[in-house]
Amino acid sequence: MAPLGYARALLCCGALVLLASSRPASTESLANAQFLPAPAMDLPGYLAPAADASLGTTFVRVTTPESPMGNGMVCKRSYCTHRYSSAQAWNADQSLLLIVNGCNGLCFLDGHAYAPLFRRQRGGECEWHPQDPELMICVAGRRISLWAPRSNAEDVILETEAYRELQFGPYKGNPSWDGNRIVVRAISQQGTLVAFAMDLSDRRKFPDIELARIPGKNSYCGISPLGKYIFCQQSLIDFTDQAFVFSIEGDLLQSWTEHHRPGHGDMTVDNDGYEVYVGISKSAPDKYQVIKRRLQDGQVTALAPYGEAQHASMRAIRRPGWVFMSYAGAALAPAGGKKVAPFAQEVIALKIDGSGEFRRIAHTRNAPYDYWSETHGSPSPDGSQVIWSSNWGQRGGPVFDFVSRIDWADRDSGNDLAQGDRHEGQQAQ
């Protein structure tokens, strides 16, 4: 047990349990890192503190598909998880944690103790406001609104007859870091699929982007962290996924026509002040590597070598210098002198400056099976907690959610947090 100063009280089933915080995460370098196998471990009990002895991290199972969680929350027996890696699971002050997949509604847990608090029924898609912990930004039907889950109060920002089937993304939509701008996909009065940016603070709609004018079928569109760019992914008939970057006014700036270069990722601002997309490349010359790519000019920087990286998350918006990577599969052996990433069934935090510095967060023990069993690691806004999913080695077995804690008490944290505050203070132009 850690000293009491590093312990957190976890209220479970009427009992007060002390959950030791993880020791400060140790930084490693990809240049000399080795694969670290997960030690054998039984599935932890629901809300029972657990430790990964090989990593020195603590974690908690926060969902229980096998039985009701309490306060009216019941999950499917097959899975009970947060929404996605690039969706923010915690609200701005981390007082609430949202479970969506498999739960009977929007299920809100205590953001630190993980006890079930309340649930809501709501259509459409809602994402947390990045600055106001009481609000979510919701898009559904013909409406965009700000919604307060605790009180169920709603402030309608836009109610339109000019568009229908409004969607937030869909599924990969996030607001800008200041919470003012989003991108909406919709059907126009002419019956065409369009995307447009919306400024929520001054209730201003930006020009339409006619998605039929770019190749392929649209998968989603999203706003960049500083609200300057619109990023759209298109899928071609041969399953090639391309990306297109537009200005906020709808002018085409970049066409990334290679397949998924990158994809399965998220957007942030890097150490040099550029807005970037970080994800996994599926095209030469960096196939199956983790890369970042500037929205402004398309410049690519390789971050991690060939490996089984599956999803990237930049939801730790107050620690923007790190990407949280979910790795699947089994450990890969070097072939032909090729450097490989030494990770399998693991969640790590990786610096996006190209230095190769990383920190191990969790052994997921997640046996590949289907979409719902993918790990989808997603950090809290300050990066102190990471939620991830696992079937605990049972292919086709129930998929649970777990939260790992990270202690960032080191020389790097102040610089990263200061950088995040600086970028968040910028006005989107």
Automatic annotation (TrEMBL):
Residues 1-27 form the signal peptide. Keywords: Signal. It comes from the Bacteria. This is Uncharacterized protein.
